[in-house]
Design goal:
With about 300 residues, this protein is mostly beta strands. Helix content is about 5%, strand content about 40%. Its EC number is 5.1.3.15.
């Protein structure tokens, strides 16, 4: 496939493959049969399967994963912005860049590597990229699959500039669900949120859980470290843990907007839910030499056990 020996020899326990556009993908596996597939295009996770080889992530049938654009689905990274504003690409540009395998990552605590199948990626700005976002950064990403099948992400962004810069951030996780009307999210009750359907009007969550009967596009603020996405149809729960990510974005486009989206099937909104651990309300500012870390951990458990994990 034309990749260097250094890449192929890296993380010998992992497999390597290519997508239809020739992008390198790293396949993480654990002994119990779970797996995850990570693309160097965007550092995007394309697949996450449990021990029964069931897919846990949604990917649109109309998604086109062709540089320079990222496709809709999987788990995608938004940096250095959230949403569509200014001259930068929507949700930032790192999801549209080709990352490199990081063969000499700085050491992490043993709990972040022991017993895990993982890959380290790195992204630095190109000369072209510096023209539209003139800040020198070093972005290191570790994606790890644990022995219990949980999937974790460690993002470390360092300012190697001569001046401070600020950014927003999000891990956009698209979960595959039985039917959106059968899903509820617990852990957001009593929180304030910004409603993107009402020009970011600030409201307070009144229900004991968030359920879905129409389009939802909200940014929940000051969230707890763990929330649960309970899928009654599949009788399973996604437990989402965040560190360094105070906000949680919840999105489902529903019927009308789905029909207007080129990269989403008309009825596919029923099987997807996007939940993003994020930094939206208060940007992160890094002085020269400073580093920020944002961690996401996803675990799947039978729904009857969800309360134990919260």
């Amino acid at each position: 496939m034309g990749h260097s020996t250094a890449i192929w020899g890296y993380r010998a326990a992992n497999d390597f493959t290519e997508d239809c556009n020739g992008n390198l993908q790293v396949v993480l596996r654990n002994p119990q049969g779970a797996s995850a597939r990570v693309s160097v295009h965007g550092g995007q996770v394309m697949s996450w399967k449990n021990e029964q080889r069931e897919e846990l992530l949604f990917t649109s049938s109309k998604a086109i994963f062709r540089p320079p654009k990222a496709g809709a689905g999987g788990i995608a990274i938004g940096f250095p912005q959230f949403g569509n504003c200014g001259s930068l690409e929507q949700q930032g540009f790192v999801r549209n860049k080709v990352w490199a395998i990081d063969e000499n990552p700085p050491p992490l605590p043993p709990r972040d590597s022991n017993g895990k199948s993982f890959v380290d990626l790195i992204l630095k700005p190109s000369a072209e990229g510096l023209k539209y976002w003139p800040h020198s950064f070093e972005y290191r990403l570790r994606v790890a699959l644990a022995s219990d099948g949980s999937l974790s992400f460690i993002s470390r962004i360092r300012n190697v500039n001569g001046k401070p810069f600020s950014f927003l951030f999000a891990y956009h996780a698209y979960f595959l669900v039985s039917d959106i009307s059968e899903v509820r999210i617990e852990g957001l009750e009593t929180l304030d949120y910004l409603d993107n359907l009402s020009q970011r009007e600030r409201s307070t969550e009144q229900g004991d859980a968030l359920t879905f009967e129409s389009e939802v596009d909200r940014i929940y603020l000051g969230c707890p470290n763990a929330i649960a996405v309970i899928d009654h149809g599949k009788k399973r729960t996604f437990v989402i843990r965040n560190e360094g990510l105070p906000d949680v974005v919840v999105w489902n486009p529903w019927e009308k907007k789905s029909k207007a989206m080129a990269d989403l099937g008309d009825e596919e909104y029923k099987q997807m839910l996007c939940v993003a651990g994020a930094v939206v309300e208060h940007p992160i500012t890094l002085k020269p030499g400073e580093e920020w870390t944002g961690i996401l951990e996803l675990t799947v458990v039978p729904s009857s056990f969800s309360s134990d994990y919260l």
